Structures are given as C-alpha cells and as structure tokens.
Amino acid sequence: MTLFNLRASACVCGLALFCALLTGCDNGGGGTSSSGDDDGPLVVYCAHDAVFSEKVLRDFEDETGIEVVPRFDTEASKSLGLVQLIMRERDRPRCDVFWNNEQLGMMQLQREGLLQPYKGEGFARMPDAYKDPDGYWCGFAARLRVWIVNTKAADKGIEADAAALWQRTQAGDLSRVAIAKPLFGTTRTHYTVFWDAWGAGKLKAWHGDWRDRGVTEVNGNGVVMNLVARGSCDYGLTDTDDFYVALDRKDPVAMAPFRLADGRVICIPNTVGIINGTKRLEKAKRLVEYLLSRKNEKNLAWSPSRQIPLGPIDVKELPQDVKDLYEWSKNPYPLSGLGDAADDCLDWLTPEYAR
Amino acid sequence: MTLEAGIWWALGRAVVVAGLAALIGWAVARLWRAIKTTWARRCLAVALIAPLLTPAALVGYAYGSLWALAVPYPALNEALYSTVLLMRLTPVAVGVWLLAPSPPIDPAAAHARRLSADTSRVRGVASFLSFLIRSRLRTGLLAASAVFLLAFSDLEMANLFHASAGRTTIAYSWTIWVFDNQVLAPTLTHALRSIVVPMAIQMAVLLGAMELLTLTRGEWAGTGFSLREGGAPVAPSEPRVEGGAQSTPRLGRSLALPVTWAYVVVAVLFTSILPLVLVSIDALRGVATLPKHDWYLDLLRNSVMYGVLAAIGALGLAWVALRVRRGRWWVVLLVCAPGLLGSLVLALAVQAVIIQPAFDAVYDTPIGLVAAHTLWLAPVAVLLCWSVRVGRVDTSLHSARLLRKSAAVRPRRAARRLAWAMRGRPIFWVGAVLFVLAYFEAVAATALYPTGGDPMIVRVYSFMHFNQAFYLSAMVVLMMAVPVVIVGVGAWVLRVLWRE
C-alpha cells in the first residue's frame, strides 16, 4: 500500500468503527414492554424553539423516566419543515409525538390522516376553541402576534399603539417596517387570518401594496425582532416570544397586540398530536398529558418565552407580563375553521415566493 | 422572487467574486513565492487558511448587528455579502494558483511569442485565445472556476444576509429559492427538478475546468510547493526557467507586496479574527450559563463523530482518485463533481435517494449525512492530498521504508520519524482540515442529520437567528474550541505513537 501502511490502515479502520459505534442514534425501535409499547425512546418532532422547549422535554424525562429523542426545526423553515417531513415519512413514520408551535400544520396533518385521536385529562381542560373536537390534536400555551416597536422611534411619533401603528401603514414608505416571509410559521397564520377575514382579493391587494411601498421582508420573526431592536426598522410584526428575547436583552423595544378591525387578536397556540401508527402509544399519551398539564402551562408562562396558558389557571400565579397577554388573548380570532383558507393562502403565496 | 431571478443574481455575483478572487489570488500567490522566511510563510498560510475554516455561521452571527443596520440599504447589503464571500473564497484561488499543474506553454515560450508577435502577420483571434488558455491565463480560469462553483452554490451566508426591501431583494440566490421550495414541495423529487438549470451551469463550469486541466504539459506531481526555509518554492503554474528572470519575483520592489499583505491582513481580520473576538467577548459573560445546558455535550460529540467519519471517507475517496492511471480524468471528475455542486444540491440528492424504500435501513441514520459530507469534501481532499503527494512514493520515502526493516533499533526509530515527517504528518493535517470543514458544515447537516443525532452547528445555526445572546456566544466559542483541541491532541498522540 502506498498511502497507508498496515498499521495506519488498522488505526483508521478502528477509528471508523469506533466513531460508527459512538454515532449510533437512539431513535431505533427496541423490544416490547408490558404495556405493549416499543421499548425504544419516544421520538418527538418539536417545532417550538429548542431554546425554550428542550428544558420541558428534559423535565418530562426526569419526571417519568421516559427517554425522549427530540428533533427540532430550524428558525428558517419553522414548523412547516417538520410537517412536510412527517408527510414524507407517512409510509414509515419515525415520529411518535409532534409538538407544533402553531395550529395550521397540525390541521393539515389531521386532514392527511397522519394523526391519531387521543382525549385525556389534558384535552378535557383545554377550551374548545383550541382543540380538535375529535381529539386529533390539542392546543396549549399560546402566543400572540404583536407589533414590536423601537422605543427610540418615539421621536418620530411612533408609539406602541396597535391602532395607530396600523394606521401608519396605510400610506407612505414602509422600508422601516419589518415582517417575516409569510410562507412559514406564525406569519403564515397571520396571512391565513387575513385571507379568512378580508377575503383573497383584499389580502392580495394589501400584500402587493406593502411590497410596492418597500416593506422589509426577512427570514423569520426572530430577524424582525432584531431589525427593530437594532433600530434598522422602526416597527414590525412578530410574536410575543421573540419580543421578550429583545426585552430581556434590554433592547429599546415595546409592543402592542396586533388587532383586527373588530378588535380580535391573533392568538396562536402550541399544539400536540400523536402520529398515526406510533409503536409507543402509552409513552406518547404520557407526554401529551404532560404538555397539556396545568403545571407545564404554568412553567411555560414563567419561561423566557412567556407563553399564555389556555387551560384554567389562577391568574395570580402568572408573571405580570403574562397577565397582560392573558387579558389580551381573551378575544381571539378562531383558527379552527381555517384549514381550507390555510391551503388556499399557501397555494397563492408559494408562487409569489418560490416558483 | 423567481428561480430565474435567483439564478441570475447568483450567477452575476459569482462571476464578479470569481474574477476578483482570481486576480487577488494571483497577487497573493506571487506574495507567497516572494516570501523567503519560514515564519512569514507560516503566518501567510494561517492567514489564508483561517477564513476558509471559519464557519460562515460565525461570521454571520458576529456581524448580525452590522448586517441589521445595512438591511435598509440593499446595495450596501449586497456589497457586504459579496465582500465576505470574496474574502472567504480568495484563499481557494490562491491554492489553485499555487498548486495547479503547469500550463502547456511556459513563461519563456510566452515571452518568445510576445517578441515575435509584431512580425507575425497571420494571427487570428482563435489562435490568440488558444494561446491564452494554454498560458498563465489557464491557471487564472481554473482559479476563477473553483471560486465560481463555491460562490454560486453558497446558501449559508446568503441565508443570513438575505432580505427583501419591498420588491428589491438582497443577497438573493437560487439556493434560497431551492431551500424554501424543498420545504414547501410535496416531494423531494419535485424540489430536485427545480435545480436542473443551476446544476447545468455548475456542470458546464466544471467540465470547462476539467478540459483546461487536461491541457497540462507537466505531470501533476511537478509541484515544488514547500514551507521549508531556503527551499525556493516553485509554482507549478510558473515553472522555474533556468537562469531566467521568472524565478525571482520582483514584487518586493514595488508597492504590490505591502498592498497584498494589507489585503491578506484585512481579510483574515474581517472574516476570522474580528468575528471570533466579538463572539468571545460575549461568551465571557455567557460561560456561567453553560452548565445549565448540558445537552450541548451530546451535540458536540455528534459533530466530532460526523466530522471524523467524513474526513476518513474523503481521504479514502481522494486516495482512490489519485491512484488512477494518468489519462483517466473521468475518475477524478466522478469523485470531485458531486462536491463541487455544493452542499445544498448534494444534500437534496442524498435525501431523495435515502428516502426511497430500498434504503430503509439507511434512512434517519448518520450514514446519509456522512455520505453527503464525504462527497462534499472529496474535491478538497483530492486537491490537498495531491499537494502533499499522497499516493506517491518517492525515493526518500522508499529509503525510509527499507530502513524500517533494519535489525537495529535506532535506524528503525529514525525511519519511523522520517515516515511521520514525510507521510504521516501531511496526511494528518489534510485529515484535520477535512474534519474541521465537515464539523462546521451547516447546510447538509441541517437537511440530513438523524433524529437524536443533531450536530452542534445545526442547533447553533438555528439559534443564531435570534442574534447575539451571551449563552449562545459561549456555545459558539465552545463549538469553535473543540476541533482545535481535538486536532491538537490528535497531532500530539499520533506523533508519539508513530515515532515510538
């Protein structure tokens, strides 16, 4: 051999074998437990930001002893990447439980027949507006679509007032207004709500008008938050969890809930569903119960993302920030009937951005 | 924004960046040859390699605030993105200028042609062009081609710089379109169909470059690339002309030398040192938070293992490619072509293959990611292995091998040390570079990592969209430190083992 001598080859082979052994992933199946479940770890696809959700899943592991193998989505593709992955894996599902950070994707999976119903205690405690009546998915711990405003922009007369901000966008240059690309994530939900509330024609005209007037479109709500927090834009549309990242960083930001003309807000819950055909059904049910529990909702309310509890909870137990959000979220735009609107809206948006 | 627009934007940007990189690369290669001292050459080598090994995500992360300020100014943002691309990719052009095989027409012949040019009456454009691509311009085209392929297929940086200001897009590229489309497309084959045109462009450039390479006068091994003091290096693209002026660059006498040095220093500062310093300052405040996030140790382990496996695989592929008989260029092309198409195309192709039922055993395992990284690294591996003469046995190495069969202990030990210096150490450092590149690669890693086997770069890259945070900076610095420690310890251990 001219490249490696025998010893070097042996070293390399040994190293490769060692690496292959160490790199083996823990997502395979195992034997069968007394409950009929596969002994393997519970595979959870999680669209909620890993920075917030990882701790929840680890706490669940500590509390139940059930090993969880999470797969997180990226900020760029948000939940849609995982929804598509579950659809592509329909013939050999890898995922047991899908923790989505919005509702539309879950409704799409339900329509595709990829979820299986489960109605437990957690399901019972959630309001009807945030769950599928047949139990295919259930919402919990929500966030709001909000205006994020750079407080230094007050010199220009820009204040964190929802009605005034909306009014400001009706005319003039929008280059200092930021919004995420509406193909993914909660901005897609935002557009779907417009589609439903306004009708397709008005939304298309509005969208075209905003783009003509130079609105800044970026990859994700986190980037919107950054542009406003750094002063590159005066204000923009984002989610509450992203706003609190900036606030905790002590950036000069303020917020106001985005309201439709009738005063309703866009309140987007996390959702959880069990994937059809899971071999770890009992473990999956325990995770669903854990996520829908009062304790978890309270923990998420106290987490840096300040999620709004949807189930019954004593408001006094919530941090002040979430108390405000809780009040605002009492008048939400209903998302449950938006399945067709979501599809139609995405069918229109896709060629706008990716054809 | 349409796919066509993305292709045109990326094409224009890549052509400009490739042209500039080839020119600057030529100047830096001249600088390399002009330097005589070992320490200065080592400094230059580090300054050239550092931007290539610094992850694009780190640069984007460190300059997040600066980028945010530039977003309202599309031209400025595009310039910023192109500049970062240029600075990161120019070292590739330098490498090509230094390592590419000699052109068929050497400088002496070119000079003779120039002298005779006035007296020749019959000289068509075709003959002139034919002459040009057989002279030094050929190496420039090769350098530009290599940079073009990398710039044209960039996604990591584009994704961090990309935005739209109304109807005006910033840092747009077909890769962003394909990335969005593969998320939206019902099937991967649907997404893959959309990359036919970009792939055709890449293949055309690739085949053109291969055609240029076949116009080679000398052997591939005819390089004098060396770091040794006093050993006047000979560039393969500029062969030594006995007694001629070509072997002694006059760069030092002009302003070109300090200007080129200044460029190299600015480039390494801008694309490596400054980002690292900025992130490290934040990281100091975030170190205390690290113990709360112990999951990153698993991610680091995954990253290291994928990197090691991909480096070994790429070394193997390079070994195969470099052992083929001369004239069988198609084998080298076959090994290098997938990687030169870029990590996004490669990742989508691998994804489309392993999702087929026939590959059920492979799906959602590390094999897909390691395979993609191996193919992606293959061209770099071939270039580096060739530059350190892997696969070739010269007389001194052969002598060392014979010496190892000696009955006496001292000659055997001396032979082992010699073999380490001549063969083991170069292969180790080539492997180290490949490992670091795979360790920091984010695009294929994001598309192909198995459930439960996230590499660190995927998580960090995702977090980076939130912009700087102290704990994230600490994670980034930790992520940067791990390969340095591994390579350092590995070098020491292997050195000891090999010698003893």
Overview of the molecule:
The complex is a heterodimer of chains A (355) and B (500). Chain A contains 14 helices and 10 strands. Chain A has helices spanning 6-23, 50-64, 78-88, 104-111, 121-125, 162-168, 185-198, 200-212, 221-229, 240-248, 281-292, 294-302, 320-328, 339-354; strands at residues 42-46, 68-72, 97-100, 115-116, 138-150, 177-180, 216-218, 235-239, 253-257, 267-275. In chain A, strands 1, 2, 3, 4, 5, 6, 7, 8, 9 and 10 form a 10-stranded mixed β-sheet that branches. Chain A is globular, with a radius of gyration of 22 Å. In chain A, 53% of the residues are buried. With 500 residues, chain B is mainly alpha-helical. Chain B has 2 domains: 1-112 and 123-229 and 249-287, MetI-like fold (Orthogonal Bundle); 290-500, MetI-like fold (Orthogonal Bundle). A two-stranded antiparallel sheet of chain B has the order 1-2. The longest helix of chain B is centred in the N-terminal third of the chain and has 32 residues, at 3-34. The interface between A and B is large, with 76 and 68 residues. Strand 7 of chain A pairs antiparallel with strand 1 of chain B, so a sheet runs across the interface.
